[in-house]
Amino acid sequence: MTVPCGPAAPSFEPATREPPSRAVPAAGVAALRRRLRDALAGGDRVVGTFLKLPSADCVDLARQAGFDFVVVDLEHSSLPEATALALVRHAAATGLPALVRVPAVDPALINRVLEAGAAGVQLSTLTAVAEVAALTGATRYAPHGRRSVSLSHPAAGFGAVDLAAYLAAEAQDPPLLVGQIETAVTLDPVPELVGGLDVAFVGTTDLVVGMGLPGPEALRAKVEEIVGAALSAGVAPGGWIARADEELLTGGGLGAARYLVVGSDVQLLGSALREVIHRWKEAQ
Description:
Layout: E1 3-4, H1 26-41, E2 44-51, H2 56-65, E3 69-73, H3 81-93, E4 98-102, H4 107-115, E5 120-123, H5 129-139, H6 163-172, E6 176-181, H7 190-193, E7 199-202, H8 204-210, H9 216-232, E8 236-241, H10 246-251, E9 259-264, H11 265-283
Parallel strand pairs: 2-3, 2-9, 3-4, 4-5, 5-6, 6-7, 7-8, 8-9
Antiparallel strand pairs: 1-2
Helix pairs in contact: 2-3, 4-5
């Protein structure tokens, strides 16, 4: 599903995928991270969706549809942690990169989602450079961070992977870091804030509320400011839209977004159900 960014970007077409692997060794998780990083670095657009429902079927449906990744949502969902970890493990086992959205830097939680096979972490409400440093420290092993080491988890083959080989794979392809910039005012300037991230994700819903529900032009200007700061820093811009629509994307200032999250499993299911009833009633 990776597509070129820019005005000539085509519609979001499903991609043909390799048959998924059922194992989740460290090398497999590293490959999933590398796939996303290479696409972002190459200027392609990767498209995912939020997962809020406690069913592995949602992972399989997203993969079958051709999404490039999913984001398991531990901020705006009722998912218990054990279920979220199971979704991450299933996604990694089937060859679909899964990131996990967290509301704050919780090193223990972040370690558990990474050990389950998460491709990265998406941090909500990023406002300070210190938070980026804390996120980096929680996702990297020494000497690059403070993440605690264990091999008793799926991403290390439950100990079947040599420690040195595992650490080398993690150092070469560390977890992706996505920071949501979604407040009208940040503690540190946005150009400084995005440094160290893989993706600067514009949280437009919270942003528009924080700006006092401004008109579309004011919101677009703010979004373009964040996107421009990301591009200047060599960081991939990202964002969320309710549906796959290029006009909606460019009109909202996210035309250059390389990491795009479209809706969620809850939203897409609700929209499909409403469409069925709407068409049925129209036909009566």
